[in-house]
């Protein structure tokens, strides 16, 4: 949320998708029948649970009703077809399995599901997928849905479903980056869904990287147990606060002290503490000029980039950034003292 990855997607010819309630976007949460298996059944049933539940937790029998509805909706389909959310809604509305109480519960679920199949939410969730998801780099920005936090949370997991083709291809190495996403799965059902994402990504030759500004976001989220139990590497950059919480991330006293002493020189380098199982190390990230200009969100850098784009309107994005990297390798607002280095070997700034 916020556009930080827009330039990255543009430079690497990826897709940057700012999802909003409009006809332009449609993401079907159901995979084709040929990719439907027991793991996907569990995922879809849990996602439907999140969509239909109210304040009261669903019973095991309720979950069985949703699971049966998912199985039933797939039965008549050919391998290359996928159902829509409204198909599950119809199954639940006309539920014929179980006893009278089951049928009443199923009908109630169908009514709750209708909010996702009709109106503006239905435009996104109840149509065949229209988005091309074949690019190597795909960015989903949910910032335009800030007024619909419940839809943001559902879409977060629908996006996971839409990427099933990539996830199932074990020959393809993939990385799923969740930046400031803790708000999307901060409940019991979301916790189970994020745990499923971590588990399946690892099995399918992928990894999940969750990013946050503070340890508090992870530790205070209901999904913290699921995330931490499946996270084997932790990257900790310089913190303004929250050092006292790092012990809950399995850092010892000396490691926390090392985190407190991490150093940053804007445009030059950033230190980080890396914890891998029982091992800890301080690493230094020193971006090249081009790395810097691909990643920077500094307002002064933005103005300098826009100025150069106006001067050379026909230039490609990469050409613009390469020129900026040569002219300002450490950012537009920084100048370098020649031949002056600090004891760590890094160039000092004026």
Molecular structure report:
By secondary structure, this protein is an alpha/beta fold. Among the domains are: 55 residues, no CATH class; 58 residues, no CATH class. It is built from 15 helices and ten strands. Strands 5, 6, 7 and 8 form a four-stranded antiparallel β-sheet that branches. Strands 1-2 form a two-stranded parallel ribbon. The chain has a two-stranded parallel sheet with strand order 3-4. Strand 6 and strand 7 form a beta hairpin. The longest helix has 18 residues. The protein is globular and about 70 Å long. The C terminus is likely disordered.
Task: Sum this structure up briefly.
This protein is α/β, with parallel strands linked by helices. Among the domains are: about 230-285, no CATH class; about 290-350, no CATH class.
Properties at a glance:
350 residues, four-stranded antiparallel beta sheet, disordered C terminus, alpha/beta, 15% strand
- Percentage beta strand: 5-15%
Q: Using DSSP, what is the number of strands?
A: 10
Structural class: alpha/beta
Shape: globular
Write the layout of secondary structure elements.
Layout: H1 6-11, E1 15-18, H2 38-52, H3 60-74, H4 85-93, H5 100-117, H6 119-125, E2 138-141, H7 149-162, H8 164-168, E3 174-179, H9 188-203, E4 206-211, H10 215-219, H11 224-229, E5 233-237, H12 253-260, E6 264-265, E7 269-276, E8 279-285, H13 289-295, H14 299-311, H15 317-327, E9 336-341, E10 347-349
Parallel strand pairs: 1-2, 3-4
Antiparallel strand pairs: 5-7, 6-7, 7-8, 9-10
Helix pairs in contact: 2-3, 2-7, 2-9, 3-4, 4-5, 13-15
């Amino acid at each position: 949320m916020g556009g930080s990855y827009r330039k990255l997607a543009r430079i690497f010819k990826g897709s940057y998708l700012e999802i909003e309630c409009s006809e332009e976007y449609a993401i079907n949460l159901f995979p084709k029948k040929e990719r439907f298996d027991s793991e996907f059944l569990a995922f879809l049933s849990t996602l439907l649970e999140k969509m239909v539940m109210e304040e009261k937790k669903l019973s095991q029998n309720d979950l069985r009703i949703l699971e049966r509805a998912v199985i039933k909706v797939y039965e008549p389909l050919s391998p290359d077809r996928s159902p829509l959310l409204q198909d599950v809604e119809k199954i639940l509305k006309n539920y014929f399995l179980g006893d009278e109480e089951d049928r009443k519960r199923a009908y109630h679920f169908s009514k709750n599901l209708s909010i996702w199949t009709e109106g503006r939410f239905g435009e996104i969730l109840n149509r065949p997928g229209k988005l091309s998801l074949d690019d190597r780099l795909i960015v989903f920005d949910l910032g335009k849905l800030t007024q619909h936090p419940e839809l943001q949370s559902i879409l977060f997991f629908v996006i996971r479903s839409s990427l099933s083709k990539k996830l199932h291809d074990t020959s393809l190495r993939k990385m799923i980056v969740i930046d400031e996403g803790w708000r999307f799965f901060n409940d019991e059902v979301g916790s189970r869904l994020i745990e499923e994402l971590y588990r399946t990504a690892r099995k399918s030759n992928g990894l999940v990287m969750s990013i946050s500004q503070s340890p508090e976001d992870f530790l205070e989220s209901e999904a913290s147990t699921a995330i931490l139990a499946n996270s084997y590497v932790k990257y900790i950059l310089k913190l303004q606060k929250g050092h006292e919480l790092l012990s809950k991330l399995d850092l010892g006293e000396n490691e926390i002290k090392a985190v407190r002493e991490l150093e940053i020189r804007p445009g030059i380098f950033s230190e980080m503490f890396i914890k891998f199982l029982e091992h800890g190390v301080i690493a230094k990230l020193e971006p090249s000029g081009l790395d810097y200009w691909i990643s920077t969100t500094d307002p002064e850098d933005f103005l300098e980039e826009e100025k150069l784009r106006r001067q050379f309107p026909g230039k490609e994005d990469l050409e613009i950034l390469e020129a900026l990297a040569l002219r300002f390798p450490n950012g537009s607002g920084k100048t370098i003292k020649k031949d002056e280095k600090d004891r760590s070997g890094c160039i000092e700034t004026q």
